[in-house]
Specification:
Elements: H1 2-24, E1 27-34, E2 41-49, H2 50-56, E3 65-69, E4 72-74, E5 76-79, E6 87-95, E7 100-107, E8 121-124, E9 126-129, E10 132-134, E11 137-139, E12 142-145, E13 148-150, E14 168-171, E15 175-178, E16 186-191, E17 216-218, E18 232-235, E19 238-241, E20 247-255, E21 259-271, E22 274-285, E23 291-297, E24 304-309, E25 314-319, E26 327-333, E27 342-348, E28 353-358, E29 362-367, E30 373-382, H3 392-407, E31 411-415
Antiparallel strand pairs: 1-7, 1-31, 2-6, 3-4, 3-7, 5-6, 8-14, 9-12, 10-11, 13-20, 14-15, 15-16, 16-17, 18-19, 20-21, 21-22, 22-23, 23-30, 24-29, 25-26, 26-27, 27-30, 28-29
Length: 417
Amino acid sequence: MRNVFLFVIFLFSAKAYTQSVMTDYPEFFKVTISNPLAVSRENVLVLVSSQQLSKSFKKFNPHAFVVMDGEKEIPAQYNQNDSDASGIVFVLDELGASQTRQLSVRFHPSGNKPRTYPKRTQAELSYKKGGEWKNREYIGGAFQNTQFLRVPPEHKDHSWFIRYEGPGWESDKVGYRFYLDQRNATDVFGKVTREMVLQQVGQDGFDSYHEMQPWGMDVMKVGKSLGIGSIGSLVNGEAIRVEKTDSVNCRILENGNVYSSILTDYYGWKVSDNKHDVRSRLTIHAGTRATQQTLTVTNNIENVATGIVKDKAAVLIKKNGDGQHFGYIATYGKQSLNADNLGLALFFSPNDLIEITEDTNSHVVKLKPSQGKCTYYFLSAWEKEPDGIKDQKEFENYLETVAQELSSPVKVVISKK
């Protein structure tokens, strides 16, 4: 009898909740998501673009909406600042093989009715304020977060000016940072928790993250290499990172519950006898290990070179891809700074590929931008993550899954009914 009573209360509560949603968000439209793959996929990013919305639903109000899967609310956000992914963003836990699912977006045409969801991504940039520069070091002051930073000309590596030396971004799987100085290389924070952790990093000692912390640690040695997915260009057989520039700006575009992104502008990057302006956009979403790197480079750069640090403890795995499937290079083995298993991977469109090669410090993917643009993805998989990948075979299967999904994005259609 007690179970029946509880079930009745549950049904009543669900009905009351649904009625409340319909009252607070009286307008709606349908979103149809289709999986072109004959295999199921997890943690699927869905974007209903602002262009789609402005064309079909001009009354839509980004300040008062919910995404509903039947009577279940799906955490979502509206990207206002990331122009390449502006619109409604949410993540489906699963989309079945060849499945088509229909959700609804309910909204109020006016007002502000925000929703609160668990935070599953984060992007931040924190620098010191209140101190002073002495030569190349920043003395005193305290860290504060910012949405935008024009990098001071005094700033170099180990200036103690930027917390963990650059901007950071993370999902509930993994964290990353890149050095916002003349190195401009990307590093990995391995996490032993699904919680957001970047706000803790570097607060209890500038580089304490090089040793195991309650949240995890820096798991990769970058040195003079391309780290993981860093920006470079191959010149005379060596990858040149974005080291010599006229100026650099960095901006946090989105710091959302399900999606975050960072925009960095490098002006006057010197490569051989030429200078190039580079715009880098880094994105991550809930439930994924992968970061998307989108580059725009001026002045007809000969190539963009990115890659993965060489490590004697890791084996190299590579696949060129073909006209319909992403290629990748990856390494796997006991290459983490904690001497345990770490997988690193970089995915690219075969249409952009010039060659897979190497230099002194890195496994290198040499790409040719199309009209000055190219996009690639990189990821890290540490065995100490919650439900982490434990061996090479599991990692190789995972690589194939990611490559397949990148090659076949879901299709999103919106309609009134």
